[in-house]
Design brief:
Layout (H helix, E strand, L loop, with lengths): L3 H9 L8 H24 L4 H7 L3 E10 L23 H7 L12 E11 L5 E4 L1 H4 L4 E5 L5 E3 L1 E6 L4 E5 L9 E2 L10 E6 L7 E14 L2 E9 L11 E3 L4 E9 L10 E5 H13 L6 E2 L2 E5 L2 H6 L8 E6 L4 H5 L6 E5 L2 E2 L6 H6 L6 E8 L2 E8 L1 E2 L17 E3 L4 E5 L2 H7 L8 E6 L2 H6 L6 E5 L2 E2 L3 H9 L6 E8 L2 E8 L2
Parallel strand pairs: 8-13
Antiparallel strand pairs: 1-2, 1-4, 2-3, 3-7, 4-5, 6-7, 9-10, 9-12, 10-11, 11-14, 12-13, 13-14, 15-22, 16-17, 17-18, 18-19, 18-20, 20-21, 23-24, 24-25, 25-26, 26-27, 26-28, 28-29
Amino acid sequence: MFNPAMKRMIDMMPKPKTLHAPGQMLLSLALTCLLIGGAAQAQSLPDFTGLVEANSPAVVNISTTQEVTPRQGGMPNVPGMPNIPDLPEGHPFRDFMDRFMDEDGNRPRQFDTRSLGSGFIISEDGYILTNHHVVDGASEIVVRLNDRRQMTAELIGADDRTDLALLKVDGEDLPTVETGSSSGLQVGEWVLAIGSPFGFEYSVTAGIISAKGRSLPTENYVPFLQTDVAINPGNSGGPLFNLNGEVIGVNSHIYSRSGGFQGISFAIPIELAMDVADQLRNEGSVSRAWLGVVIQDVTRDLAESFGMDRPEGALVAQVMPESPAAKAGFESGDVIVEFNGREVPRSGALPPMVGRTPVGDTVPVVVVRGGELATLDVTLEQLPDSASRGSGRGPAGPSGNFEALGFMVEPLDGEAREALGLDADVTGVVVTGVSGGPAAEVGLSPGDVITRVNRESIDGIRALRNALADVPAGRSVPLLVLRDGSQRFLALRMP
């Protein structure tokens, strides 16, 4: 019943002489239960030793060299400090500065910096996956293996939208990781990371999956895995393993106020990472589909204003001209609730769905429009490299006062259009002041241009007053607002 270690522990326990035989039996039984319970609890925790031993050889340390040129203009003019040329030869401060300044004393010289990160080998012939930010701007990339071998790596390609990069070293029969799937992961499942935090090579940290499908403000095309695995600078680009020893993610980001781990870290799902790696290897770049809409979350107030039972989907705030969405008939105010047969629970879920759909495919998109469901067929195109945006602030001088709602507007005349950089075909009114109330609560700001109320276009202050007058008290109405070249809806609740 007991293993030898347990039996020895029980035999070594002192037997109270004051207890009769039944008492001794009860005491022994209680101690035995405690020992069995402790052993069972210990056995329920995962043992990572075999996983680490099997996979550490395929995890690499990455160091890079970057040429950095400090800002131009020489040293600042500090009161009481002599000019560098006026210092005598052999002066310690002059000798120090001569290392960084050109002969004319004005242009700083270039110098090298080094950064550290992690990566893992995905093929026996030397392809390595890591983060884009680990190797961005590097003039030299050095890879160090677990057996202390050191190799210079070539950058095959990088994709900043997913923060992934593919490297290549010369080698044969190199150790590799086994890739798995992140789609079947459950929240609460154990995971493990191997990397080089702060340069400490082959450090191992473990934790659980905290959430799936997270979207970050600057990473729209990645449905991140959130974990509580300790990730610090130097872990970037390293693998995240499941208990089967399969890589299910690439450690990429942390949320921190101190610059170090504070309990939240993010990994790129391995399916997305391997798709990017294959495209970089075969094409040298990443092809990504584009719908051509600016979206935002559907709040409870916006859902009510659109006649929806609950907040869900991605609200279309703006349709880009000549985009696939424009050609398919999308409109501002549409709420995308299903894309190519998959539900869209929130706005952050849509970009990864679009990005992973092959360019040129025609897919059905279900939207809520005017309180009814409609299906639009859209043919996706290649994502453009960049999109231009205007900027500007509205001029002062309010002339329309909506005191009960807490904001003021003025007509969108020629001067206002010029100040805001707007085309002649844009109609609306420009917000010139926000004093509080419902306008402040929804985030209306001076310089915003209100172009629509509900589904009604606004061409002046009178049209805005008439549109708002039709909204019952206590109800929310969607305002379509143009801000810094982008449109978004705000749910304004009538007092």
